[in-house]
Amino acid sequence: MSSFGSLFETPPSPQRPRHGVRERSVQCLGPHGLHRMAYTEWGDPRNPRVLVCVHGLTRNGRDFDDLAQALADDYRVVCPDVVGRGRSDWLGVKADYGFPVYVADMVTLIARLDVEQVHWVGTSMGGIIGMLLASQPHSPITRLVLNDVGPVITTTALQRIAQYVGMAPRFPSMEAAEAYIREVSASFGPLTDSQWRHLTQYSVRPVGGADGGFAMVYDPGLGDAFRASPILEDIDLWGVYDNVRCPTLALRGAESDLLTPDTFTAMAGRGPQAQLVEFAGVGHAPMLMDETQITVVRDFLLGGG
Fold this sequence. Notes:
The chain has 305 residues and is of the alpha/beta class.
């Protein structure tokens, strides 16, 4: 949506609810002090049904704008910028970037939302955060969507990601930024020009100083943390996945190098015995921006599939 709503607006018509988008933040505690995690919120703030959508490694919560708008009549949709991305703070100690901090931050966020249960959509890294939290006893996650991620993260994908994370140049123009994002994110699939522009708009920020231009809205230090240990073998999270008990939907881009066909198929027979849906013509990862992908997610979350 293009305008920001107020919590004090006249209540919308019951025939056609209207929901604004709100930008908020929450203070979280990490190993070396406090940091601020930003999030975007859609839908009625009084709605007890909450959907948390968490993005991939170098992305941000605005990736979910289309999905959030489609579900805002049914959910209070909350899309955080994981620390070090988007509008959130950058950590002073780059080694702190990792899943212990990310999971703890999400627990803090859910406490801020003042709800006992949430549904969860996680793309790539966001799916791993969701798996880690959903595998815990008394987890608040009661329905889980894993978007192009599973219990095995391939060495091939990790090495590909290591080649670009934290390496983005400064861009002289938005056009140059969009060209770069189209190149490094080509595996997102055949997005429209407007969709690529949307992703670019929220992926870069103006840079001050004499040189000007634009830079990515994530901390380049993410790359340092990501490359701190040599990537020699696949990451095995089957022990985590097998402890997930809530209904789970696993999505896969048919050309994905991060979620292999064998792992994807095995997810239907272990742990939560996920429902499986694969999207043709897409790699890592489906962006949940087109109606077909959104419908699959909506039907599962609302209990229809």
